[in-house]
Design brief:
The complex is a heterotrimer of chains A (544), B (315) and C (297). Chain A has 544 residues and is of the alpha+beta class. Chain A contains 16 helices and 17 strands. In chain A, 31% of the residues lie in helices and 20% in strands. In chain A, a hairpin with a 4-residue loop joins strand 6 and strand 7. Chain C is 73% helix and 0% strand. Chain C is globular, with a radius of gyration of 22 Å. Classes of the chains: A alpha+beta (544), B mainly alpha (315), C mainly alpha (297). At the B-C interface, helix 1, helix 7, helix 8, helix 9 and helix 11 of B face helix 6, helix 7, helix 10 and helix 13 of C.
């Protein structure tokens, strides 16, 4: 939230909007009479983490376990406004970049960078650091990233041109309005040139509001205030302390007994919210989408699901309401591959969803239709199709799998649960050694350029079941270039329909869970359509 | 005596060598290695990239070469680098040892302080109602899963005392730390105390039957003197064995107790390292545990040999 | 040749057992704790065998409306968060726990007896090598070894049985070996040799039966350990996989989360495990008292 009196420069459109906002804020402040600087400059925020980040390097990970604690160490070129609950292209604010302009053909994006910013070790930030970061991401660096999970995000980048110390231009192959959204994600911090990727995996250096202090595996992550942070007056907190407690029962007990100021983001599952609220009556809990959706990896290259009719039958057998009732107490709703309304910007209206194969409200009819298909294929009550549903040996994977197996029974499929250790799961998926896999997919940004490109384009590493449709590929590229939001949505919905018809990777539902905190934690705004972009913590303060 | 000592030492070394091979092979049979885990965490599946990482970490060398590298390193004092945090393995293992050692010591103390007196009482009052009650109680103690007990204790504390006895930060004073650790130590030590009680009881019974106790009684020594003086002193020998057996028995309890009570010790770290396929850490830690157990057994055998000459010639 | 006291401990025990079986009341009076243990074990075995008849629900059937149902009514012991009936899961879980316990113990005993018998009877370098191997296995604590083995083999019912059985082998081998060493010197072995029996036959037909008494005692003690280790492995996430309703798995992390909303999820499986182990321990103690008072623990 901009402080009154500090006007942040921006693109023409941005500037006028911001100055309106600033003026309005000033007015509101004068009228309300409350000084905006009631924030206290002190205190250590304590919360817990549920497992160990594999490394401290955000660029090398694809798990919120790494982004959540370490996003505060860095800055991006641009960022989703930490104070606005819904991420969208309209809420992108300047970070290391003061302003940006698109070229006329919309293929070049030029950023003007802030000056006078220092890395945590004292060196100066320049455009070269942006260049180095993208050399890493584009795979051009000499000492590269050990793992580069988001390389596919940048398939459209031809070149990154540095003009002087404080100007960077991205040259794209095709126009891509959502490109800014990729840069605004918590997954896209700017790394320093002068620190090797190896160092960044254990001792990250950034320009952000908090400095990395230590990470003791299985114990604690500590961050301390960056006294020389370029945003005056921020951060408010002295330090952030994140205790790692792998045992879920223990950590919720710990929050309830006052050991921590807040829970880990979305750590409280729906069935436990009432319990937490009753045992810790002072706590505030907010239920929201986690940006993670449960989906089925249908192996189209091996029996039995290489047969499209069988896939169709399976799609009809999925009773999403039942999943919702058991796992979400009815609060989850229907969705396609994009995050659903109301929080998701690309969600389909309910009538449209209901018209997709398998989403019809009449579950019995769907099951009957599916049975008819199965009978046509030769299966029946005396001839069951035996197969295995594979998934990981973790509760959030296992539980939906158990429910799925129950549902497949209705259509003459005798499925057995094949629960495997994480490493074995990974190998199975790589080799295509499964029939159906139950999978969880996280979305870094609520944007089709992230979701579709990562999960449904033919050449993406994250397209685990190797679904490949030239038509869908064409449509994905088409929507990526489209400037008009409504036209783009229409194309996105076309893609959703095609994915549902092909039974590419059926979506069961988007998960929801709660984050809880005590009332003395102020300035916390949780993003409604992402858990990956809001952990900068520079506006959070403790009122005690 | 000297030959016995040397022979035992050699056997100990041989055993340790065997264990090193065993754990090394077992770990390599485990499907998946650190590259799989890292790739999975990053959501990547490219086989070519994975091979590159495996080569970087030396995981594609022949097994024998990897083994020789490891053992050679150990001999030089180089305990290898953890794959996960890319730091020397010792840096991860050593800081976690003190808290586990304190927990283990407290648990052993608890089990001895509870188990030995109860075992003596039970033996001396054999076949009375008290004996039965104690025997049933000890059996119950042995039957409880220690993590269940730990969980119930945590629940009880939060419910009735309003605070949770988990280890979040190392308390400044040693005394505070020991006080905090005493609760999980009791949970871990309860099973051991039951075992100690039973073993103490049986060895006391053995001793009480011995001729020289009868002789002492015949000579006119009071029953009390006979019990606590002659009997106990002679029963101490097996009790030392008991403590030795307990060392191995306890580690299992430590693993789950550390998990439930969130203690950042070496036992919980072992489970974590196995999950991450962090070979250097697992190998070194298991060798460490094995060395401790084998050494404790060795010392116990030495104590026996010194105190009971008959044993020396049995080998 | 049926002289009452020839042939060692087994014959003694056989006579005693014959005497006991004809007066159950005598047994109950002399070994009340053992009888209690036997009753508990019997109850659990019956529960496992009759599970289909004494339960209403399928232990793996989910039911959204029964999620976290309190004990009472249709769900006498409540239901878990997926609506699965706890009583069914405990009854069917008895099958799993017994299968794992008995399976692992049997396997461990078979392997241990083979090693111990051969090692003790034939001696020599076979003995030396086997002993060192046993030392190695024994130097690693039970849970650690089971953990590594379970991780090595992957989560499945068979693999868990294997993983738990291996650490049990050294103890069995050692006891059998020392017993064999003692029996080897006995006169009836000499007699058998004189008659012309070959060594293997002597080992199998004369020595082995006489080691059964301590073996039975040991096995019942190991059974308790096996059940507990399975529970610990499942708690740590490395034990019996879904959908088998194992008691240990019911106590795992996902149940523990609801420990304050639904304590019955944690209390009943824990009680079941404790009771089963308690019963086998009581029974084991009594058996030991019957067969060989010298082994008194």
């Amino acid at each position: 939230m901009p402080l009154p009196g500090v006007l942040l420069k921006g693109e023409e459109r941005m500037q006028s909007r911001l100055s309106t906002v600033s003026a309005a804020t000033l007015l509101a402040v004068l009228v309300a009479g409350t000084p905006a600087a009631a924030q206290k400059q002190s205190g250590t925020l304590k919360y817990y983490h549920r497992d160990n980040p594999p490394t401290t390097s955000i660029h090398e990970e694809a798990t919120v376990s790494t982004v959540n604690p370490f996003m505060a160490v860095f800055n991006n070129l641009v960022l989703f406004d930490q104070g606005k609950p819904v991420n969208s292209l309209e809420t992108i604010v300047p970070d290391l970049a003061e302003s940006w302009t698109w070229s006329a053909d919309r293929k070049r994006l030029t950023f003007k960078l802030r000056q006078g910013i220092k890395w945590h070790d004292g060196k100066s930030f320049t455009s070269k650091d942006v260049g180095c970061t993208f050399d890493l991401l584009l795979g051009k660096a000499k000492e590269g990233l050990r793992l580069n999970p988001r390389q596919v995000w940048y398939h459209n980048v031809m070149n990154v041109r540095l003009d002087g110390d404080f100007e960077v231009t991205f040259e794209l192959k095709e126009p891509q309005p959502s490109f800014l959204a990729l840069l605004a994600s918590g997954y896209t911090p700017i790394y320093p040139c002068h620190v090797s990727p190896r160092e960044m995996r254990s001792r990250p250096i950034g320009t952000g509001p908090f400095k990395f202090v230590e990470f003791r595996r299985n114990e604690v992550i500590r961050l301390a205030r960056n006294e020389n942070y370029w945003k005056q007056g921020r951060p408010y907190l002295d330090a952030i302390e994140v205790r790692i407690i792998p045992s879920r029962s223990t950590r919720i007990l710990a929050f309830v007994s006052g050991e921590f100021d807040m829970t880990y983001d979305t750590d409280v599952p729906i069935p436990l919210i009432k319990d937490v609220e009753s045992q810790a009556p002072k706590a505030i809990c907010q239920l929201r989408p986690t940006g993670v959706y449960v989906n089925l990896l249908v192996n189209q290259e091996a029996a039995p699901f290489n047969d499209a009719r069988l896939r169709h039958a399976a799609a009809l057998a999925i009773d999403r309401k039942s999943f919702d009732d058991i796992l979400g107490q009815g609060k989850l709703g229907l969705s396609g591959a994009m995050q659903p309304l109301p929080e998701g910007a690309w969600g389909m209206p309910e009538e449209m969803l209901r018209s997709l194969p398998g989403y019809g409200a009449d579950v019995e009819k769907n099951a009957a239709d599916a049975r008819a298909i199965m009978q046509g294929l030769g299966y029946g009550p005396d001839k069951l199709l035996k197969l295995k549903v594979s998934t990981r040996d973790i509760a959030i994977y296992r539980d939906p799998a158990v429910i799925l197996i129950d549902q497949l029974k209705k259509i003459y499929i005798d499925a057995e649960l094949d629960v495997v250790d994480t490493t074995i799961w990974h190998r199975k998926v790589t080799r295509g050694d499964y029939a159906i896999g139950l999978n969880l997919t996280g979305l870094a940004v609520d944007d089709p350029d992230v979701n579709f490109v990562e999960n449904y384009t033919c050449s993406s590493e994250r397209n685990y079941n190797k679904y490949c449709s030239p038509e869908v590929e064409r449509l994905i590229a088409l929507q990526s270039r489209e400037e008009d939001h409504e036209k783009r949505k229409a194309i996105v919905w076309q893609i959703e329909r095609k994915l549902a018809e092909d039974v590419a990777r059926p979506v069961i539902h988007f998960q929801r869970a709660a984050t809880c905190w005590y009332p003395w934690v102020k300035g916390l705004v949780l993003h409604q359509n992402s858990i990956y972009n809001g952990a900068r913590f520079e506006d959070v303060w403790l009122d005690r | 005596m000297a030959t016995y000592l040397i022979r035992r030492l050699l056997l100990m070394v041989l055993t340790l060598f065997g264990i090193s091979v065993l754990i090394f092979v077992l770990l390599r049979i485990v499907p998946g290695n650190i590259a799989d885990i890292l790739f999975d965490a990053a959501g990547m599946v490219s086989a070519a990239e994975k091979h590159k990482l495996e080569a970087e970490l030396g995981l594609d060398k022949p097994i024998v070469v990897q083994y020789v590298d490891w053992i050679g390193g150990l001999a030089r004092g180089d305990f290898g680098y953890t794959y996960v945090s890319e730091r020397p393995a010792l840096e991860e293992i050593l800081p976690r040892i003190p808290v586990t050692a304190k927990l283990a010591a407290l648990a052993v103390m608890f089990s001895v302080l509870l188990g030995v007196p109860l075992g003596v009482v039970s033996a001396v009052r054999q076949n009375t109602a008290l004996d039965y009650v104690l025997r049933v109680a000890s059996l119950s103690g042995l039957s409880l899963p220690s993590f269940w007990l730990g969980l119930l204790i945590l629940m009880a504390f939060v419910q009735y005392a309003g605070w949770i006895p988990i280890y979040t930060e190392k308390p400044a004073r040693l005394w505070d730390e020991l006080a905090l650790l005493s609760i999980p130590a009791a949970a871990a030590g309860l099973r051991s105390s039951a075992l100690v009680m039973r073993l103490t009881r049986s060895s006391m019974l053995e001793v009480l039957r011995q001729d020289y106790v009868r002789t002492a009684r015949a000579k006119g020594a009071s029953p009390a003197a006979v019990n606590y003086d002659h009997a106990l002193r002679n029963a101490m020998l097996p009790i030392i064995t008991i403590i030795g057996i307990e060392a191995a028995f306890l580690v299992g309890g430590l693993i789950v107790t550390e998990t439930v009570f969130n203690i950042p010790g070496v036992a919980r770290f072992l489970v974590e390292a196995i999950r991450w396929r962090d070979y250097p850490v697992v190998q070194n830690l298991v060798m460490f545990i094995a060395i401790i157990v084998v050494s404790v057994n060795f010392l116990v055998d030495m104590a026996y040999a010194v105190l009971d000459p008959r044993i020396r010639y049995e080998e | 040749m049926a002289v009452a006291h020839e042939g060692g401990a087994f014959d003694l025990a056989r006579n005693r057992a014959a005497g006991l079986s004809s007066s159950l009341a005598h047994f109950l009076r002399r070994y009340p704790l053992g009888a209690a243990g036997a009753a508990i074990v019997l109850a659990i075995v019956l529960m496992a065998l009759l599970a289909d008849w004494i339960t209403i629900f399928d232990p793996t059937a989910t039911d959204a409306h029964a999620s976290l149902a309190r004990p009472g009514g249709a769900h006498p012991l409540g239901a878990d968060f997926m609506g699965r009936d706890m009583w069914s899961r405990i009854a069917f879980g008895a099958r799993i726990s017994l299968a794992v316990g008995v399976g692992a113990t049997s396997l461990g005993c078979i392997i241990g007896v083979s090693i111990g018998l051969l090692s003790g009877y034939f001696g020599g370098w076979l003995d030396l090598v086997a002993q060192r191997f046993m030392d190695m296995l024994q130097a690693l604590p039970l849970l650690v070894l089971a953990l590594v083995m379970s991780a090595a083999l992957g989560p499945s019912l068979e693999n868990v049985i294997l993983a738990i059985s291996i650490p049990l082998v050294p103890t069995v081998a050692r006891v059998i070996r020392s017993n064999t060493l003692m029996l080897r010197e006995m006169p009836f072995v000499e007699a058998a040799r004189a008659v012309g029996m070959n060594e293997i036959s002597i080992a199998l037909r004369h020595v082995l039966p006489n080691t059964l008494a301590p073996l039975i005692v040991l096995a019942t003690a190991q059974l308790g350990s096996a059940i507990l280790v399975e529970a610990a492995l499942s708690f740590l996430g490395l034990g019996i996989p879904e959908p088998y309703p194992s008691w240990g798995r019911m106590l795992s992390e996902s149940a523990a989360e609801y420990v304050r909303t639904a304590p019955w999820l944690v209390i009943y499986p824990g009680l079941a495990i404790s009771l089963a182990v308690f019963g086998t321990n009581l029974l084991g103690d009594a058996l030991r008292d019957i067969f060989d008072p010298r082994l008194r623990l």
